[in-house]
Amino acid sequence: MMIEVANLQKAFGSNQVLRDISFEVAQGDVIAILGASGSGKSTLLRSLIHLETVDGGSIAIEGQDLVRDGVYAGREQIRRLTARMGMVFQAYNLFPNMTVKKNLTLPFILTGRGSRAQAQDRCLELLGKVGLLDKLNDFPASLSGGQQQRVAIARALMLNPDIMLFDEPTSALDPQITGEVLNTMKDLASDHMTMLVVTHELGFARNVANKVIFMHQGIIEEAGTAEAVFTQPQSPVTEAFLRL
Amino acid sequence: MDYIISMLPMLLEGTVTSLKLFAFALVLSIPLGLPVALQLRSRFRPLRWLANVYVYIFRSTPLMLQLVIIYFGLPRIPGIGPYLLLDRFHAAILAFVLNYIAYFAEIYRSGLLGVNRSQFEACQVLGLSHWQAQTRVIFPQMFRICLPSVANEVITLLKDTSLLYAVSVAELIHNAEAIVNRDANMTALMVALVIYMILNFFLTVILKHLESRFSWGKNL
Predict the structure, then answer these.
(1) Smallest Cβ distance to B127: which of A83, A91, A140?
(2) How many other CB atoms are found less than 10 A from the CB of residue A76?
(3) A19, A32, A56, A193: which has the highest count of C-beta atoms within 10 A?
(4) DSSP letter string, B123-178
(5) At what angle do helices B88-114 and B2-40 cross, to 10 degrees?
(6) Chain B positions touching chain A (beta carbons under 8 Å)
(7) What average pLDDT does range B166-187 have in this prediction?
(8) Per-residue DSSP letter, B73
(9) Under a CB-based contact definition with an 8 Å cutoff, are residues B100 and A75 in contact?
């Protein structure tokens, strides 16, 4: 299994955000994580890449523990495991002080993935893939939201991750331009990238994801193939959410 | 006109002294404000407390008094006093640097508050070390946010060099006053005023240029 999550617990103060989360992710899975605001889906995603520290439970990446029964692995192991994941944020989080090119190449070079020339080649290849080669020397501030998010996806791909995490990647975008970002993600899915996508885009979840996890008040209310969850939801809560 | 030209050598000599102090104070206090700003936000309470006391002392007392105390006061401390005797110019540099570090530290702190926390998260998921994140991502953005406030202080610093008057260093105002007293004529002070305006004109142009240089594609 690519990712195994068992009995994950997380509270912010007295607010229990994750109650008892368990699921597995296989190589090539595209999993849509759905649920209302505050259901814990973003916290779950952020816990996988160690942006949040969980209180209990286990996360393993290809059999190697990131955290086991609430006890975290050593710093080096955490670094090595989280380096296998790329993350895309709702607010893009590009570095505004760098050009698009520098946004892509700097992490590649600083983390010792390869030479400047290799960084440059890979940068051109990935920008071509997301259709933004002409923005190479632009600063993020001069790009549209959709373009910034595609750059952010390319930046995450620079480091050659095995798993891509998306935290509401289209929620900050105008409805007219969510399509360009969703198409980029669709391309990624057809390249068999393992993806976990927290989203409100039911269309994307239904058409691109092979599995759906529906969260409600810190637990997984329902999980299954996209087909099953959308056509025959078992829980009335899921059904009510999907009918919205 | 001939009168003005006749006083220029003395005024320009004073101007050079003022600019020297300005340059030393600036080059030292701009970078040294950063470590103090970081201590102001330190998680280690005693360090944070110490930095706050430092900033409090130097911001809440007049620079002129600090200057006088460093020059006249330090050498009178029993025991170590004799080792703290500085010549006027160096005492002035010390006072200015200590004072301006306090101001720059507060300005940088405000800049650090202005950098979005999510930038740290982006650095983290991209595998950057804390140091790499600070130097490549956070500090440049902090500096950009601070630039207008820093520019303000830089211009104030140039004018503050006239405080050297208090310890009788022959800077611009000191020399202008000498001419005024010698000739019983105010013209020298007017010329000094024009010199300040000319210098600050160039400073303003440079600082504006810096701002647009660091605009990163944003319309200012």
Answers:
(1) A83
(2) 8
(3) A32
(4) HHHTT--HHHIIIIIIHHHHHHHHHHHHHHHHHHHHHHGGGGGGGT---HHHHHHH
(5) 50
(6) 116, 118-119, 121-122, 124-129, 132, 136-137, 140-141, 144, 214, 216-218
(7) 90
(8) I
(9) no
Predicted pLDDT at A79: 95
d(CA A82, CA A80): 6
Q: Do A42 and A166 contact (CB within 8 A), yes or no?
A: no
Q: Which member of B129, B137, B214 has the closest CB to residue A95?
A: B137
Q: Per residue in B95-143, pLDDT tens? A: 999 999 999 999 999 999 999 999 999 999 999 999 999 999 999 999 9
Distance from CA of A207 to the nearest CA of B (A): 28
> Is A97's pLDDT higher than 80?
yes
Q: Quote the tokens at residue A148.
A: 């910034």
- Name the DSSP letter for residue B72: I
Sign of CA dihedral A233, A237, A240, A242: negative
Q: Which residues of A touch B121 (CB under 8 A)?
A: 51, 89, 93
Which residue type does B41 have? R
Taking the alpha carbons at both ends of chain A, their separation in whole angstroms is: 33
Q: For residue range B26-60, what is the model confidence (pLDDT) as tens digits?
A: 999 999 999 999 999 999 999 999 999 999 999 99
Whether A97 and B144 lie within 8 Å, measured CB to CB = yes
pLDDT interval class at A177 (50, 70, 90): confident
- How far apart CA A40 and CA A220 sit, in angstroms, is 9
Q: Where are the alpha helices (DSSP H) in chain A?
A: 41-48, 75-82, 100-110, 116-129, 145-158, 178-190, 202-207, 226-231, 236-243
Measured between its terminal Cα atoms, the distance across chain B in Å is: 43
Q: Comparing A74-78, B82-86, B171-175, which segment has the lowest mean pLDDT?
A: B82-86
DSSP secondary structure letters along A52-118: S--SEEEEEETTEEEEETTEEPPHHHHHHHHTTEEEE-TT----TTS-HHHHHHHHHHHTTSS-HHH
Residues A216, A39 contacting (CB under 8 angstroms): yes
Contact pairs from chain A to chain B, CB under 8 Å:
64
